[in-house]
Amino acid sequence: MILVTQRNPVLRWSYFGEQWDRIQAAIGEHLFLTLTPVAIGFILSAVLAGIGLRYRWTVGPITLFAAFLYTIPSVAFFGILRTTPLGLSIYTVLIPLTAFTILILVTNILDGFRAVPAPVREAADAMGLSPVRRLFTVEVPVAVPYMINGLRIATVTLVGLVAVAGIVGRGGLGNLIMEGIRRQFWTPLTIGALLSIVLAITLDLLFFLLGRWLTPWARTARS
Amino acid sequence: MLPVSGAGTGVAARPPIPACLSSPPVPLLPHETGTVIDQDLKTPAIRLRGVRKRFPGTTEDAVAALDLDVERGSIVALIGPSGCGKTTTLRMINRLIEPTAGRIEIEGDDVSNQPPVELRRGIGYVIQQVGLFPHRTIAANIATVPRSLGWDRSRVQERVRELAGVVGIDAQMLDRYPDELSGGQQQRVGVARALAADPPVLLMDEPFGAVDPIVRGRLQDELLELQNRLHKTIVLVTHDLDEAIKVADQVALLNVGGILEQYATPDELLRAPASEFVERFVGEDRSMRRLALATVGDLPFEAGPVVDVDADVTTGLAVIDDHRSDWLGLVEDETFLGWVPREQLVVGTELRQIERFLPAAQVAPSSTLRSALEIIMTSRTSVAVVNDAGRFRGTVTLERIRAGLAGDLDAPTEHAA
């Protein structure tokens, strides 16, 4: 328990001025460590979902595997990879973070394709769209709201998880939090936590806006 | 049947459907397309021979060796209880389902020889749930096939606007998304999308099944109007006998397992059911259904207990005795003047002087026999006067309608003046 005293207030504003470079770097690293796994995870999930849609029987095993990755405690995952030749490299953080996104993204992508109404598919076939064209001009666009949902959940989750990676010294804003805990110093802890929240909300909002921009048709439904 | 060589030449001379659709200029208005049809009128537009379908993992045929000819420019309704394979049959025509055996030809070309994607671009398709693309505007939905065929933008735009007019979609709606439209409007867009590239063949699977009865009736009327102008070859699946009777030129009634029980005109189906199954399917009130199907104009002309106003009373009395009527109708220069009751017919008076009752019971030649019956039953004279735009054309009685039902209401009748 860290006591709040006059010398150790919850937030010392001068810290921003003094440590601005570090804060900035932490935000940058946090963004990078959030968005890179989300991007890689999305590509991997798209491939896995593709396999699942093509070969129905694989959906179960794929989901099970993704769930397995998801259930490994993140701290343990970081810790285990640290003992491998990866050591303290960026991959020690990126690999677990990417693994966490897969369950969220795969299930949302699959839901998106399942949400394409059967009559829409039938009509696409009957209009003479080839399977590839049907996929890219009908099914993917109709699945976009679900994909955006998955991306939003994955991103917000990762902003929180990246901070945990602070324990292996690769945690963006998590590094500030860890420093605050180690030094019994409130200010970096508060700043790390607050900025992490702001980052999560901002990224969520950006994905939300991206979704609206991509799917003007989805918000016009008749009441 | 044409001689084999003749039919063969006709087939060879006709380009496959997708080719003729993709080679501009495609006429914008379907009524300009008459030329394709001239070739050999005897070949059915769609021909099914021994078409059988058994789905994998089942032990019964969904469709059992079906033969069916669909005449060019006609509407054929496939009808039957669920499990009769009507939708399966429809979907085999554009290869959404591949038959297990048999042969399907469109304009003499075996569909199995054509790549499905190209085949389908030449066949309009309308389904109950419409299946509009939710992420595309109405205009883009209608433009689906023309765009696949590579039409240039202005031509696509022009065609979309034209079709919106044809199916009755407001031009302002073209930029909206499907979810903003009512069910009936969506179905109109579905029809417009199916007609976009002016395909000669249209397949419709319960097209009006999802809308309320009032809208359904209107859409059926619109389909018939459209068909009067476009002369498409239409195969329509329905489970609604009234719909089949109303819109179809020929009805194919299928039994469970895809067995064709009867293939006939709606009137023949009702008048002469080919089997007990058909009889049960068309129901006990099939005569009433036939009445809704036929019009007063389909009955032979009958003057009825009617005389010229200048005839003498004795003639009038003879006429109503002949017709066992209590009322005498008076006519002058093709205008029906009114009815005179028997007790007023005193020998020596002039017919013109007798007070007349105006004819309340009137029908037009285009009225259905069902509405004529309704009018007769509520009329004091038990006779309905047939007026065609004010001109007296004869009368209709219960007796006449009954006689009509005994005969073939499809056969053209001579209308003596």
Write the layout of secondary structure elements.
The complex is a heterodimer of chains A (223) and B (417).
Chain A lengths: L13 H5 L1 H35 L4 H13 L2 H9 L8 H24 L3 H9 L4 H34 L8 H11 L2 H29 L9
Helix pairs in contact in A: 2-5, 2-7, 2-8, 2-9, 3-5, 4-5, 5-7, 6-7, 7-9, 8-9
Chain B lengths: L3 H10 L3 H6 L11 H4 L8 E8 L9 E8 L4 E5 L6 H8 L7 E6 L2 E2 L5 H6 L1 E5 L10 H5 L1 H5 L4 H15 L15 H13 L5 E5 L7 H18 L2 E6 L2 H7 L2 E6 L3 E6 L1 H6 L4 H7 L3 H8 L12 E3 L4 H10 L4 E6 L2 E7 L20 E2 L5 H9 L5 E6 L2 E7 H9 L11
Sheet with the most strands: spatial strand order of chain B: 6-7-8-3-9-10
Question: What is the assigned CATH homologous superfamily of the largest domain in chain B?
Answer: P-loop containing nucleotide triphosphate hydrolases
Q: Major sheet of chain B: size, sense and barrel closure?
A: 6 strands, mixed
Radius of gyration of chain B: 26 Å
User: Structural class given helices, strands, pairing of chain B?
Assistant: alpha/beta
Shape summary of chain A: elongated
Query: Strand-and-helix sequence of chain A, N→C?
Result: HHHHHHHHH
> Which structural class do you get from the secondary structure elements of chain A?
mainly alpha
Tell me the major beta sheet of chain A.
Answer: none
Question: How would you describe this structure to a colleague?
Answer:
The complex is a heterodimer of chains A (223) and B (417). Chain A is mainly α and 223 residues long. Chain A has a single domain, classed as MetI-like fold (Orthogonal Bundle). Chain A is elongated, with a radius of gyration of 21 Å. Helices cover 76% and strands 0% of the residues of chain A. Chain A is built from 9 helices and no strands. Chain A starts with 13 loop residues before the first helix and ends in a 9-residue tail after the last helix. The mean pLDDT of chain A is 90. Helix content of chain B is 35%, strand content 21%. In chain B, α8 crosses α9 (183-195) and α14 (286-293) packs across α16. A 6-stranded mixed beta sheet of chain B has the order 6-7-8-3-9-10, sandwiched between helices. Chain B is built from 17 helices and 16 strands. Chain B has 417 residues and is of the alpha/beta class. Chain B starts with a helix and ends in an 11-residue tail after the last helix. The longest helix of chain B is centred in the middle third of the chain and has 18 residues, at 213-230. Residues 1-39 and 412-417 of chain B have low confidence and may be disordered. Chain B folds into 2 domains: 4-122 and 200-292, Rossmann fold; 297-406, CBS-domain, CATH 3.10.580.10. Chain B has helices at residues 4-13, 17-22, 34-37, 86-93, 116-121, 138-142, 144-148, 153-167, 183-195, 213-230, 241-247, 266-271, 276-282, 286-293, 313-322, 369-377, 398-406, and strands spanning 46-53, 63-70, 75-79, 101-106, 109-110, 123-127, 201-205, 233-238, 250-255, 259-264, 306-308, 327-332, 335-341, 362-363, 383-388, 391-397. Chain A binds chain B through residues 117-130, 133, 138, 141-142, 144, 215-218, 220-222, and chain B through 94, 96, 116-121, 123, 125, 127-137, 144-145, 148, 176-181, 190, 193, 203.
